[in-house]
């Protein structure tokens, strides 16, 4: 048997979804793998991202449902217990790093703990020791951006919010993206006085703005004070908390969340030294096979410079694609399917495929069908009498996109993914019999 040229067939720098989901079947295929992680096994999503966020959101959704049913079968409102919610979140995500790590090691994947730095096109150094592989996969993820203003040491990021055991009376949230609005929803539902500062006129720019305005109106109804076109200039410590100084006056707060975005983890990992091309704001440049400018080095997940969303499912898809590529199951370029996205607020906003804005800009290619969900029988039974759906069809009548704002938008969008991805004939769509009565049946009814 020929002597192995490198220690591993594939060595991953990072252990998030862009790494471990693809590594498991790759190990089962007989590849010798190593995985380097400086923090908790599993990366952002299981430990300080979507898993923790949705855990905190669960009682928010339940409270909304209970509030909606007052006088229609339920009496007595509920109160969100911040401390208990925090403790539950820590309990349900606490076991994930060990479980993921055990699963990886059970398949023979060697876990290497420490900060990894590229040495050459086949080598990564960790704690002064070199590890080599035929192929390297960079899956280092992203980190929170921080405002560069005086008093920035008083700002907190999304990880800090997920670790916030004690409820603040007053919270200021700077930003207008997913994290800002989702955490504003959680805090406001718990009774915190929330000020949301938008840098521009609009929030959630990638979503249909009339739906976003409905969401912002709902937040205001919950007591959130929304400021637009705000530029924070400094944060100062006060006797009773903190003060955020802006171009629109000063805002007093007990806790300040900087939710101004995330940046790819490209610094300090040896990209320049090895010659991997990247942009500090956009991420690592790859070709249509996820290959970097150095042929033996690939990249997946949030560290990528890519057009599709920086989402857990796209990271998983990229990791699984590399498994197929490395095993020879495919030689084709990566071809992303229809990628849904959702904001887990109250109400939720979700979309997939061709957006309403894109359809409106090309009326010669698309038709839009609007549905008012407030009179749906199933939603009337739920007392969830708020929401709209915009379905986008091509001129041949195929469903190519959908956007929705409602308490069940994420489930509604999820139910139509096969129609869009597999370009199912409009007649054949009728052959799908849904469970009734459900959100899925109501969604299909509107197509």
TrEMBL record:
<dbReference type="InterPro" id="IPR016156">
    <property type="entry name" value="FAD/NAD-linked_Rdtase_dimer_sf"/>
</dbReference>
<dbReference type="InterPro" id="IPR023753">
    <property type="entry name" value="FAD/NAD-binding_dom"/>
</dbReference>
<feature type="domain" description="FAD/NAD(P)-binding">
    <location>
        <begin position="8"/>
        <end position="319"/>
    </location>
</feature>
<comment type="similarity">
    <text>Belongs to the class-I pyridine nucleotide-disulfide oxidoreductase family.</text>
</comment>
<dbReference type="Pfam" id="PF07992">
    <property type="entry name" value="Pyr_redox_2"/>
</dbReference>
<dbReference type="Pfam" id="PF02852">
    <property type="entry name" value="Pyr_redox_dim"/>
</dbReference>
<dbReference type="InterPro" id="IPR001100">
    <property type="entry name" value="Pyr_nuc-diS_OxRdtase"/>
</dbReference>
<feature type="domain" description="Pyridine nucleotide-disulphide oxidoreductase dimerisation">
    <location>
        <begin position="339"/>
        <end position="445"/>
    </location>
</feature>
<keyword id="KW-0274">FAD</keyword>
<keyword id="KW-0285">Flavoprotein</keyword>
<dbReference type="InterPro" id="IPR036188">
    <property type="entry name" value="FAD/NAD-bd_sf"/>
</dbReference>
<protein>
    <submittedName>
        <fullName>NAD(P)/FAD-dependent oxidoreductase</fullName>
    </submittedName>
</protein>
<dbReference type="InterPro" id="IPR004099">
    <property type="entry name" value="Pyr_nucl-diS_OxRdtase_dimer"/>
</dbReference>
């Amino acid at each position: 048997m020929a002597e192995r040229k490198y220690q591993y067939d594939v060595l991953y720098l990072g252990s998030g979804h862009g790494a471990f989901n693809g590594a498991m079947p790759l190990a089962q295929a007989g590849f010798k793998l190593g995985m380097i992680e400086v923090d908790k096994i599993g990366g952002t999503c299981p430990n300080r991202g979507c898993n923790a966020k949705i855990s905190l959101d669960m009682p928010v959704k339940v409270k909304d449902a209970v509030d909606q049913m007052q006088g229609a079968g339920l009496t007595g409102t509920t109160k969100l217990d911040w401390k208990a919610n925090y403790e539950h979140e820590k309990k349900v995500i606490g076991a994930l790093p060990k479980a993921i790590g055990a699963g990886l090691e059970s398949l023979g994947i060697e876990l290497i703990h420490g900060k990894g730095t590229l040495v050459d096109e086949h080598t990564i150094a960790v704690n002064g020791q070199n590890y080599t592989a035929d192929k390297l996969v960079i899956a280092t993820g992203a980190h929170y951006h921080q405002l560069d203003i005086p008093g920035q040491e008083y700002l907190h990021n999304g990880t800090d919010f997920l670790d916030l055991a004690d409820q603040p009376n007053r919270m200021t949230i700077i930003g207008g993206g997913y994290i800002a609005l989702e955490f504003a929803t959680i805090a406001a539902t718990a009774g915190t006085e929330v000020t949301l500062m938008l840098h521009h006129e609009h929030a959630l720019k990638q979503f249909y703005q009339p739906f976003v305005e409905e969401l912002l109106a709902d937040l205001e109804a919950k007591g959130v004070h929304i400021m637009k076109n705000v530029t924070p200039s400094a944060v100062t410590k006060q006797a009773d908390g903190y003060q955020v100084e802006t171009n629109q006056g000063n805002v007093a707060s007990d806790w300040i969340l900087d939710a101004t975005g995330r940046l790819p983890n490209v610094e300090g990992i040896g990209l320049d030294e090895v010659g991997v091309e990247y942009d500090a704001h956009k991420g690592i440049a790859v070709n249509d096979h996820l290959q970097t400018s150095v042929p033996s080095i690939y990249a997946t997940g949030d560290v990528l410079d890519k057009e599709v969303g920086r989402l857990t499912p796209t990271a998983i898809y990229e990791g699984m694609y590399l498994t197929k590529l490395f095993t020879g199951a495919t030689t084709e370029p990566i071809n992303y399917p229809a990628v849904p996205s959702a904001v887990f607020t109250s109400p939720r906003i979700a979309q997939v495929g061709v957006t309403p804005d894109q359809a409106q800009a090309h009326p010669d290619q698309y038709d839009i069908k609007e549905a008012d969900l407030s009179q749906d029988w199933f939603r009337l039974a739920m007392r969830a009498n708020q929401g709209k759906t915009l379905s986008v069809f091509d001129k041949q009548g195929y469903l190519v996109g959908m956007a929705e704002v409602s308490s069940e938008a994420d489930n509604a969008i999820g139910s139509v993914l096969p129609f869009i991805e597999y370009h199912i004939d409009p007649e054949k769509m009728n052959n799908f019999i849904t469970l009734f009565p459900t959100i899925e049946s109501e969604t299909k009814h509107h197509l």
